[in-house]
What we know:
By secondary structure, the chain is α+β, with helices and mostly antiparallel strands. It has helices spanning 3-15, 33-43, 69-75, 91-98, 111-117, 122-138, 227-239, 263-266; strands at residues 23-28, 49-54, 78-82, 102-105, 141-145, 151-155, 162-164, 174-176, 181-184, 192-197, 200-201, 205-206, 211-216, 219-224, 246-252, 273-278, 292-297, 301-304, 307-311, 314-315.
Amino acid sequence: MTELGSAALTALRDCLGLRPSETLLILTDPPMAELARVFARVARALAREVLVTEYSERELNGQEPPPPVPALMAAVDVVLAVTSRSITHTAARRAATASGGRVATMPGLTQDCLIRTMNADYRAIAERSHRVAEMLTRARVAHLSSDHGTDLTLPIDGIVAIASTGLILHRGQWGNLPSGEAYLRPLEGRSEGVLVVDGSLAGLGKLTQPVRITVREGVAVGVDGGEEAERFSAQLEHVGPLARSVAELGVGTNDRAVLTGNILEDEKILGTVHIAFGNNTSLGGSVDVPFHVDGIVLYPTLTLDGQVVIDRGVPRF
């Protein structure tokens, strides 16, 4: 088996726990169809049935797949989304997991990323992710800063964090593959300060210039910087006011992830923090909009109730 086939096998057998009695649905779109076929070939030796459905590439992360895809997702045991744009934070994904299915999303996955990250120790990543999730859950206030000018306060009191471990083995579980993060939704309307994204932005890739986002009462009220800042601002304007909501605070826990411009991998980098804007319903919030975009802060300092959790990119957990 090739390196690529071996990595796909690890994802399907070890991370998703695909069983001979199960039906797997693989979702894809034209740019990702070739990689989806790799998963399909490997999966046929593991599952009872393997279905592959291709639909047109979506415009933004968080947009719904077209009918009848949501109905198919809710009718199978396992869904693997090898798509250009993320369907993680969609009603279709939520309905599929509510029906008991397991869903793994791989937006923008590349062969290099798959081979590199599937060699990670996912048991160690799981332990690290659960530890950080517990710290986030216990905390009342998070504060994020960086040398580039980030100074953002995020109230999180009473919010239960999620550990995305890369092990999607039980009914109703979902997450990215590759994975490795702990995250939660900040309290709506309460985050204040400045976020300077200096790593990458979902859908825009690696940044050539930092994007400075001013946040007031939990909403992005200003976006400054270069060309990427203008493009991000245009996305917000296109989607509407709800896209500006601070949706997520996340902490990367995968020691094999590196900065590539693909948010799927970038947000998992150990020692980084990401902030997302837009939809937070998958995290228990009330902001339902077809948009969820993460921005990566490199070498951040993160404190929880004054305790340093990350010190200029060095994890203290």
